[in-house]
Write a structure and sequence with these properties.
The structure holds two protein chains of two kinds. Chain A is α+β, with helices and mostly antiparallel strands. Helix content of chain A is about 30%, strand content about 20%. In chain A, strands 1, 2, 7, 8, 9, 10, 11, 12, 13, 16 and 17 form an eleven-stranded mixed β-sheet that branches. In chain A, strand 12, helix 10 and strand 13 form a beta-alpha-beta unit. In chain A, helix 2 packs parallel to helix 5, helix 6 crosses helix 12 and helix 9 packs across helix 10. In chain B, helix 3 packs parallel to helix 6 and helix 7 packs across helix 13. Chain B has two domains: about 375 residues, Peroxisomal Thiolase, Chain A, domain 1; about 40 residues, no CATH class. In chain B, the strands form two sheets. Chain B has a ten-stranded mixed β-sheet, with helices on both faces. Chain B has a two-stranded antiparallel sheet with strand order 2-3. Chain B has 13 helices and twelve strands. The longest helix of chain B has 16 residues. The two termini of chain B are about 20 Å apart. Chain B is α/β, with parallel strands linked by helices. The chains are: A alpha+beta, B alpha/beta. The interface between A and B is large, with 97 and 102 residues.
């Protein structure tokens, strides 16, 4: 018999808002977090917009360290790690937990990207040896002192946020980091969910963080023709399911979700925000960047989550879409929902909060789970903004442009990633916890 | 894994390592004490140190089943993983028989490393930038230069989960897939993730292991600056890697990939697969000490290995040997030695294959897992090379025949970020 899993804490850092209140107010009011890039000079890049978090001050959210010191070197922690600290602290407080003993045997499972490349620092290392043919590989090893490159580079490791969170909260159980591109945050939550279900642990800190908004990130995705180039109209660039969309907008942020075994959450009198009831994961095994034309992996992820949750498509009152704002994703996802929902597809509202948050890659799935739980709690569906002229091939109810009230009990959230990774999570309103 | 769950068995092995381009070649190389460390070939270090590494040699794309047209967009770790996965599937009888497994119940989970930027490519961009605006770094000029000089598919070689994606596409593996990034422990973590999925009945077969290719200028620069990479020149390259030795001066940078085919025992039996071993236990823990500081007693490793040893004892199996995660970085080696000093029931040698393979990072535990499975049923464990002044009085593997056949092996993993993990394998018995 599988054990039940409660969601008892949420924390979120996004360009739409930091903290649950701001984030939710932003989503419900249809506020775009996309702006012109100001953190660095984007001139010369084909894409100069992103959903970046400006004026982030970690000290407002957690008394966590801003820098890491080792052997006389000091490095500022990268944005991704700082976002993770803030989101974790919010979630732990939201769950009315503290640091310490409760975490000893907990699971920490995080979907995190790599830290950003420090291009000026790379320039300092490579420029002295750069030629028209590139840079002879070993030349950079001839330089005596490029500190603190080593520390900076090591802090970019994908496991850095999770390991630092383990230290902060005292998690001596298993700490795992996964990096399945755009599905990572949702997959981390799904795997942590399974561990509680199976009795491996009673408590998990999970979610994701990523800040893939540095120059080489914007350039890399732009060269794959994946990004919107609507540079002169940032707030309207991310427009999932709209006929005039031209790609996704990179975003950044973090979300942390506290999962607890149902009975132990009840015993300590925790406020249960929602019940996590289903997880489906399937692989396209088709192409590394393109989704399968029949969206076979996406469809099986959705069906898998429905079956795992033991619910019918007609029970689902809301789907938070992966909804990237690329022609390919939006059509394939629509197709997958139709295939999985059958006759119920027309009646289920589907919205993409990426229209406002941009695409936070490894953090996206976790951020969208937070949005989905808040929708359940408040019985309000966040809209898909910028949906002005629907793509005729995208014919579901996408909750265009304005939030909507709806009575519903069960919701899904989709996360599909580069490499053909597809994840769907299902959540339900908890019994005994009403507005 | 709880008792009423399905048993998880190993039905295939694949490995590309500095001492061999297949699992059997690697095993023979390890038993022969052949070092994979040699003069660095990937690029010219021009007199800088270290001028050696433990590289995979002469991996032929054709022989490894690597599609030429895809090579361009595959990073080296994806290429190494591709070869190892192909070998493992052939070994498991999955490649020849399309009906051997339901592709929707075939998964792939790899532990991968972080790939640094390519200095050659970035060098062209920086040079073009300097030609336009002069010697100083100017972001906008760099942006223009990079847009011109970087290959359009540049990003694809740097996305970590594409190693699993490329191999999974070739196998039409439509089941669960994951990419684990727990640093030097990632290969073991991936095997642990896969074992859970098979034990829970979410897939019939999951290919799991690790891949890493950090023999690159920026990775070497990083590790040298952090003080972990050996730069000694007073001995032959093959004598540098000295895990558990008082003269250890850091690790030798290595690369490789290794995977196991993990399968639900009833499924393996039904299709008549050769069962090579049972994965009895996976355990993991964290030091919770931050990124760089390891517990003096190797707590996360100790906890993990002890749990594996307990699982073997509970099953009535001996604890015959341990593959240790020592790489020649002294504080880490000491912590590992402390962690392995009190393994209850251990009656056999402790191996340290990194003395021959260098540190293959995210692949290291998976390479050891492939070695451990091959050790079962034999009487030999690879000797620890370059061990003259041991830092602890442990029963390090010294070569030669053991008094009895190896029934079980534990693989330990320990590394950056406080991650510890262990795997227990047992010779297959009905």
């Amino acid at each position: 018999m599988k054990r039940r899993v409660a969601i008892t804490g949420l924390g979120v850092v996004s360009a739409v808002g930091i903290g649950l209140e701001d984030f939710w107010a932003g989503l419900v009011s249809g506020r775009s977090g996309v702006t012109a890039v100001t953190r660095f000079d984007p001139d010369g890049l084909p894409v100069r917009i992103a959903a970046q978090i400006s004026d982030f001050d970690l000290r407002r959210y957690a008394d966590a360290p801003l820098e890491y010191r080792r052997n006389g070197d000091t490095c500022r922690l990268d944005a991704r790690t700082q976002f993770a600290f803030a989101a974790a602290e919010m979630a732990v407080r939201d769950a009315s937990l503290e640091r310490g003993e409760v975490w000893t045997d907990a699971t920490l499972y995080f979907g995190a990207g790599e830290g950003d490349n420090d291009v000026p620092l790379l320039g300092r290392i490579i420029m002295p040896h750069a030629t028209a043919c590139g840079c002879a590989g070993g030349a950079v090893l001839g330089d005596a002192d490029v500190r603190p490159f080593g520390l900076r580079d090591q802090l970019m490791e994908p496991t850095a946020p999770a390991s630092l969170l383990a230290e902060r909260y005292g998690v001596t159980g298993e700490v795992t980091t996964c990096l399945t591109a755009c599905a990572a945050g949702a997959q981390a939550v799904g795997e942590a969910f399974r561990r509680i279900q199976a009795g491996e642990c009673d408590l998990a800190l999970t979610g994701g963080s990523h800040a893939m908004t540095a120059p080489l990130d914007l350039l890399g995705f732009a060269m794959l023709s994946a990004l919107s180039q609507r540079n002169d109209d940032p707030a309207r660039a991310s427009r999932p399911f709209d006929r005039h969309r031209d790609g996704f907008v990179l975003g950044e942020g973090a979300a942390v979700v506290i999962l607890e075994e149902w009975e132990s959450a009840r015993r300590r009198g925790a406020r249960i925000r929602a019940e996590l009831i289903g997880y489906g994961a399937a692989n396209d095994a088709y192409r590394v960047t393109d989704m399968h034309p029949d969206a076979r992996g996406a469809r099986r992820a959705i069906v898998g989550a429905l079956n795992d949750a033991g619910v019918d498509p007609s029970d689902i009152g809301y789907v938070n879409a992966h909804g990237t704002s690329t022609i390919e994703n939006d059509r394939a996802e629509t197709h997958a929902i139709r295939a999985a929902f059958g006759d119920s597809a027309g009646g289920v509202p589907v919205s993409s909060t990426k229209s406002m948050t941009g695409h936070a890659v490894a953090a996206a799935g976790a951020i969208e789970l937070v949005a989905t739980v808040l929708a359940l709690e408040t019985q309000v569906l966040p809209p898909t903004i910028n949906l002005e002229t629907p793509d005729p091939e995208c014919d579901l109810d996408y909750v265009p442009n304005t939030a909507r009230q709806r009575d519903f009990d069960v919701a899904l959230t989709n996360s599909f990633g580069f490499g053909g990774q597809n994840v769907t999570l299902a959540v339900r309103r908890p019994e005994g916890w009403q507005r | 894994m709880t008792p009423n769950e399905v048993r998880v068995v190993v039905t295939g092995l694949g490995c590309v390592s500095p001492v061999g381009n297949t699992a059997p070649e690697t095993w023979e190389g390890l038993l022969a004490g052949r070092s994979g460390v040699s003069r660095l070939r990937a690029f010219d270090v021009n007199g800088s140190q270290p001028g050696y590494a433990a590289e995979v040699k002469d991996l032929s794309p054709e022989r490894a089943g690597l599609p030429r047209r895809k090579l361009k967009m595959m990073g080296r770790q994806a290429q190494l993983a591709f070869a190892a996965v192909q070998e493992a599937c052939t070994d498991a009888g999955l490649a020849s028989d399309a009906a051997a497994v339901d592709r929707e119940r075939l998964g792939i989970i790899l532990g991968v490393g972080m790939l640094n930027a390519d200095v050659e490519e970035l060098g062209r961009a920086f040079h073009t930038m300097q030609a336009a605006t002069g010697p100083a770094f100017v972001q906008s000029a760099f942006n223009r230069a990079a847009a011109r000089e970087l290959l359009p598919l540049w990003l694809l070689r740097h996305i970590p989960n594409l190693a699993a994606a490329h191999a999974g596409i070739a196998l039409d593996a439509q089941g669960p897939s994951n990419t684990i990034t727990t640093g030097c422990v990632a290969g073991a973590s991936a095997i642990g993730e896969a074992a859970r999925i098979v034990a829970r009945g979410e897939a019939d077969v999951v290919i799991a292991g690790g891949t890493d290719a950090r023999v690159s200028p920026l990775a070497m620069l990083r590790y040298r600056e952090l003080g972990w990479l050996s730069t000694r020149t007073d001995c032959d390259p093959e004598d540098v890697s000295a895990p558990f030795d008082a003269c250890a001066s850091g690790f030798v940078n290595g690369e490789g990939a290794a995977v196991l085919v993990l399968e639900a025992e009833p499924h393996a039996r039904r299709r008549g697969a050769r069962i090579r071993a049972e994965l009895m236990k996976y355990a993991a823990a964290n030091d919770a000490n931050g990124l760089f500081v390891h517990d003096r007693n190797g707590q996360a490793l100790r906890t993990s290995v002890d749990r594996c040893a307990a699982a073997l004892r509970d099953a009535g199996a001996p604890v015959d040997c341990v593959f240790a995660p020592a790489s020649g970085v002294r504080p880490l080696d000491s912590a590992a030695a402390a962690a392995l000093s009190g393994v209850v029931g251990l009656d056999g040698p402790i191996a340290a294959t990194r003395s021959l393979l260098g540190h293959t990072h995210a692949a290291s535990a998976a390479v050891d897992a492939v070695a451990a499975v091959q050790a079962l049923g034999g009487r030999r464990i690879p000797a620890v090379r370059n061990l003259t002044r041991p830092i602890a009085s442990l029963a390090f593997a010294r070569g030669g025949d053991l008094p009895r056949v190896v029934e079980s092996a534990i693989v330990g993993a320990y590394g950056f970020g406080g991650h510890g993990a262990a795997l227990a394998f047992r010779r297959w018995r009905e």
